[in-house]
Amino acid sequence: MTPTAVQLRPEPLSPADVVAVARHGARVEISGESLEAMAASRAVIDALATDERPHYGVSTGFGALATKQIPVELRAQLQRSLIRSHAASSGAEVDREVVRGLMLNRLHTMATGRTGVRPGVARAYASLLNAGITPVVGEYGSLGCSGDLAPLSHCALAALGEGRVRDARGALVDAADALAEAGLEPVVLAEKEGLALINGTDGMLGMLLLAAADLRRLVSTADLAAAMSVEGLLGTDAVFAADLHALRPHPGQLASAANMRAVLAGSTLVEMQKNGDHAFTRVQDAYSLRCAPQVHGAVRATLDHAESVAALELASAIDNPVVTADGRVESNGNFHGAPVGYVLDFLAIAVADLASISERRTDRFLDKARSHGLNAFLADDPGVDSGHMIAQYTQAGIVSELKRLAVPASVDSIPSSAMQEDHVSMGWAAGLKLRRSIDGLERVLAIELLTGARALDMRDGGVASSKSSPVLTAVRRAVRTVADGPGTDRYLAPEIEAALGLVRSGEVLAAANAAAASPLL
């Protein structure tokens, strides 16, 4: 169940908390323990504010300008100038949930009491989130090292009452006007605070957490779609037997095989292939059917690893310099995004392959030579009608795009800041392309489900006379609430979008779980 409020403490956030705030608008509260921790670390910074010795982020310039000593009277201006100059993103506007996730992750780092930020600055960020004010951030501007600099700077700029934001209604307005309407005062930054607001992997981490939540749902949906394709193509469930998969006991593979067994349990069509007049005569099904648990299971394993990295990031306090537990202020390299960038890329590879095997199953339905008795392209009158021919083209186009998006971003690096920042992670770019990959996978799976439901209706005459398993009958019934059964050709794009809605909302998975003996893994 999605929480309606999330309290920030020095302890790690949960992935569910980040998704609740970023995607569902849950409120943010800051615990008294965190406020005390922030006040204590701020006292350390205040003690250095008038020190004549250089302290990075307090009395020096930034990056390649770190050798420049800043006079005491200019140190507040130093922080404002940092935010204004670094708010330099460009390109298409980043989704609201990405910006909210980024802000929450940075706020949580403040709440650990390791950044030297005053409690009032943290309260200002919480107020922006709770008021539904979302800074406008362009897709370009982060190299994934020294923090997601430009994206985080736009968020800090909004807290200063500058730049452009989306208000709670989604209108594009000046930040000063949005703050005034919400009854909020702009922040005036003190020493180190500007740097502390922009030095973290918060954007790429937020995108990882959102993508992982989506992929958990989608890999189970893929198991469901694959089982529907096995049934619709008159395949066998014998290859999903538990003892066969125990011979290669990868946990993800075991989970996907168990899901497919559960979905196919009680299928009259499957039983007919085993024991009926037309008993199963093929020695083996094609790989896209027979090997679905192995491929889907590898996706699950990759996702498990990605989630373990995300958990470590959520337990981190990333800033440079950082205020240590014993009161030292130390420079470090914890802002480097390599750990997050790598797994974002790993997931893009897994997503591309999950979509690829789904498209191959769909294509088998449409080929009269491989569909075992179905009309060519599932058309009502092949030749007059084209059926789902072009729906598969759409899948193929998406899968081709996903293969390009699977090319890793994290293997690239472009030096910046006069060679001071000479190796960067490109994790932000990896996160953005993974989001596009997730969107494509949802569409590919929606088309497989739509096609599978049509094929099964052509096999048994429709849901009312269903020979499917109880689970797949429930899924077919859900699909039929948004798309008509077989017939002459009609405008297909709205049906694809409606099926996408079932996948994206989790409704199709919920329909399956309601009919299953126990929820799918």
From TrEMBL:
Gene Ontology molecular-function annotations: histidine ammonia-lyase activity
Listed pathway(s): Amino-acid degradation; L-histidine degradation into L-glutamate; N-formimidoyl-L-glutamate from L-histidine: step 1/3
Pfam families: Lyase_aromatic
Entry keywords, A to Z: Histidine metabolism, Lyase
Listed InterPro entries: Aromatic_Lyase, Fumarase/histidase_N, HutH, L-Aspartase-like, Phe/His_NH3-lyase_AS
Source taxon at top rank: Bacteria
Family per similarity comment: Belongs to the PAL/histidase family.
PANTHER family cross-referenced by the UniProt entry: HISTIDINE AMMONIA-LYASE
Name by which UniProt lists this protein: Histidine ammonia-lyase
Source species of the chain: Arthrobacter halodurans
Gene: hutH
